[in-house]
């Protein structure tokens, strides 16, 4: 099968892609397959959605209308729905999701399954909006889980190891407006000395660096209400910026900046739906450390700046609020995310990842499940990993979804 992931760095080893048209067909195909994995928008940079010798299943052709329950402030959608498709529909009805990821291009089920998040010290990851889901398990059974159920917190962020998510219900909030103010050249001393104040300065805060420059290249503040006009010695940007502005990328595909207010779904993502997301030709990694260790982690990465900078387009710093989902990177405590958008020089990047992970190891580092990493997840860093293994064994005793990725990283 001649199929690649979104970035083109991975050729899938699966034998074919199944494309059902109904939920019943999903159940039949899963029950008939000895080895199978769900395939979304292919935005993962590793083999999480692949199965050598098995098949992939793409449920984007299964008709599943967007159902808004205004009284309960909930929406039910197909797992294959993209955030960028759902958000305008919600906004038109006066609703919003509390947060969005940098890219609106990805499916809801895939984003949630990998623990994907937005930004904001008080904002949880995308999985925390999920209040119910339907899951087709290895024997073709359709199971429903809701918040409060015994296994719910294990099922939501599931790395594709438990089944195929066909429908999800998300909790909504009232629609709101956001404005983006971007600042150039935030002094490192300000980041080290006033990190809490910077994180509290807007609804969502992202900072971009290559870890080698004399200052933090960019700080993006996404504010609900008046935006800031100063930020601890940084300069207000005189025009739109791409996250990889320092690497020379233009801001054509980025959401509106310069303090212009607009709907939440047109400001919380960094990139517009109708354009190539991020840089396109890239690789990605992301690591998470407890919030209280943020500045120590920054210092550790600054010490590697001369090795990181030649390989990175940009690196993003974000904070995420704690949640209870077993395999969420923020399970059990607030986290700071350290994201790397790499040049597509995979052998060099993969040689550097163990060095980065060694520097971050003292802080109980966790990884993003859908990106490139070297470390093997352990129960020391992921305390709910043993419970998830037990859940996987109950739902998939014959290993229908136990791909090489799951074997390596879940055990």
Can you characterise this structure?
The chain is of the alpha+beta class. The chain folds into two domains: 67-175, Uridine Diphospho-n-acetylenolpyruvylglucosamine Reductase, domain 3 (2-Layer Sandwich), CATH 3.30.465; 177-367, Alpha-Beta Plaits (2-Layer Sandwich), CATH 3.30.70. The protein is 21% helix and 24% strand. The protein has helices spanning 23-32, 83-92, 108-113, 152-155, 188-193, 195-199, 294-302, 305-308, 346-360, 385-395, 404-409; strands spanning 16-18, 36-38, 55-57, 67-69, 74-78, 95-96, 130-136, 142-146, 164-171, 173-174, 177-187, 204-209, 215-223, 235-236, 262-263, 283-290, 312-320, 335-342, 366-367. Strands 11, 12, 13, 14, 15, 16, 17, 18 and 19 form a nine-stranded antiparallel β-sheet that branches. β7 and β8 (142-146) form a beta hairpin. The chain is globular, with a radius of gyration of 20 Å. The chain starts with 15 loop residues before the first strand and ends with a helix.
Main features:
single chain, about 400 residues, alpha+beta, Uridine Diphospho-n-acetylenolpyruvylglucosamine Reductase, domain 3, Alpha-Beta Plaits, 2 domains, nine-stranded antiparallel sheet, five-stranded antiparallel sheet, 11 helices, about 20% helix
Concise structural overview:
Helix content is 21%, strand content 24%.
Radius of gyration, rounded? 20 Å
Structural class given helices, strands, pairing?
alpha+beta
What is the CATH architecture descriptor of the largest domain?
2-Layer Sandwich
Proportion of residues in β-strands: 15-25%
Low-confidence stretches: none
């Amino acid at each position: 099968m001649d199929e690649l992931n979104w970035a083109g760095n991975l050729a899938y080893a699966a034998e074919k892609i199944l494309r059902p048209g109904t939920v019943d067909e999903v159940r039949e195909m899963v029950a008939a397959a000895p080895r199978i994995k769900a395939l979304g928008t292919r935005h993962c940079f590793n083999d999480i959605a692949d199965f050598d010798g098995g098949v992939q299943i793409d449920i984007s052709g299964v008709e599943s209308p967007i159902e808004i329950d205004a009284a309960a402030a909930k929406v039910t959608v197909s797992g294959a729905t993209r955030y960028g498709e759902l958000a305008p529909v919600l906004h038109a009805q006066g609703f919003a999701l509390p947060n969005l990821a940098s890219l609106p291009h990805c499916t809801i089920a895939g984003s949630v399954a990998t623990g994907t998040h937005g930004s904001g010290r008080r904002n949880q990851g995308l999985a925390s909006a999920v209040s119910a889901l339907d899951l087709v398990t290895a024997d073709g059974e359709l199971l429903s889980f809701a918040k409060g159920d015994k296994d719910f917190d294990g099922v939501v962020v599931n790395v594709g190891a438990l089944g195929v998510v066909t429908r999800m219900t998300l909790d909504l909030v009232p629609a709101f407006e956001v404005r983006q103010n971007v600042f150039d050249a935030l002094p490192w001393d300000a980041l080290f000395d006033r990190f809490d104040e910077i994180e509290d300065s807007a609804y969502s805060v992202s900072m971009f660096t290559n870890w080698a420059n004399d200052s933090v290249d960019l700080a993006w503040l996404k504010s609900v209400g008046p935006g800031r006009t100063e930020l601890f010695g940084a300069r207000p940007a005189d025009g739109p910026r791409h996250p990889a502005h320092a690497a020379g990328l233009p801001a054509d595909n980025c959401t509106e900046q310069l303090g212009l207010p607009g709907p939440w779904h047109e400001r919380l993502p960094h990139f517009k739906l109708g354009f190539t997301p991020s840089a396109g030709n890239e690789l990605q990694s992301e690591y998470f450390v407890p919030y209280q260790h943020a500045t120590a982690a920054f210092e550790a990465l600054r010490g590697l700046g001369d090795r990181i900078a030649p390989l990175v387009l940009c690196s993003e710093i974000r904070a995420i609020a704690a949640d209870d989902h077993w395999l969420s990177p923020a399970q059990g405590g607030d986290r700071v995310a350290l994201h790397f958008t790499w040049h597509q020089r995979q052998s060099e990047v993969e040689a550097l990842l163990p060095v980065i992970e060694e520097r971050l190891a003292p802080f109980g580092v966790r990884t993003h499940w859908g990106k490139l990493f070297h470390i093997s997840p352990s129960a020391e860093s992921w305390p709910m990993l043993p419970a998830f293994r037990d859940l996987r064994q109950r739902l998939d005793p014959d290993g229908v979804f136990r791909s090489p990725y799951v074997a390596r990283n879940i055990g």
